[in-house]
Amino acid sequence: MADMHELAVTESILEIANQAAAENGASRVTDIYLTIGQLSSVVDDSVQFYWDHISQGTPSEGAILHFQRVPARLRCKACGNEYELNEELMPCPACGSIALEIMSGEELLVNHIDILKEEE
Ligand SMILES: [Zn+2]
Question: How much distance in Å is there from the Cα of 81 to the middle of ligand 1?
Fold first, then answer.
């Protein structure tokens, strides 16, 4: 089930996209490329669900959302080892410690926006 977190996230994506359209004199936003950290709790389907509703009547209506998941990076607080997560959260492969610091992987970024400029 979707929750309010995704709604807030989707609203900020919409704001960024519509602003980009306005700044560039674009009539329409066609594609939005999102980079989402592996550890982000954001669910693609939920964002898409909200998107279909809240983008209506804005320059971003009908724009396609592209989700790209990027691996998380962790740093071991015990030995300083830095490593990339494969699937699930795992202890430090070097020393087995679970005292870990998340370097990246919780982010959600609007990476790139494609817009359509009205001719003339
Ligand atoms: Zn370690």
Answer: 5
108 Cβ contact partners less than 8 Å away, ≥ 6 residues apart? 9, 34, 35, 36, 37, 40, 42
What's the pTM value of the predicted model, to 2 decimals?
0.83
For the chain, the domains span 4-71+105-117
108 C-alpha to center of ligand 1: Å? Answer: 27
CATH class of 4-71+105-117: alpha beta
Q: How far is the CA of 74 from the centre of ligand 1 (A)?
A: 10
pLDDT digit of tens for each residue in the chain (120 aa)? 445 689 999 999 999 999 999 999 999 999 999 999 999 989 999 999 999 999 999 999 999 999 999 999 999 999 999 999 977 788 999 999 999 999 999 999 999 999 998 764
Residues 55, 62 contacting (CB under 8 angstroms): yes
Helix (H) or strand (E) holding 104: strand 100-104
Residue 96 alpha carbon to ligand 1 centre in Å: 6
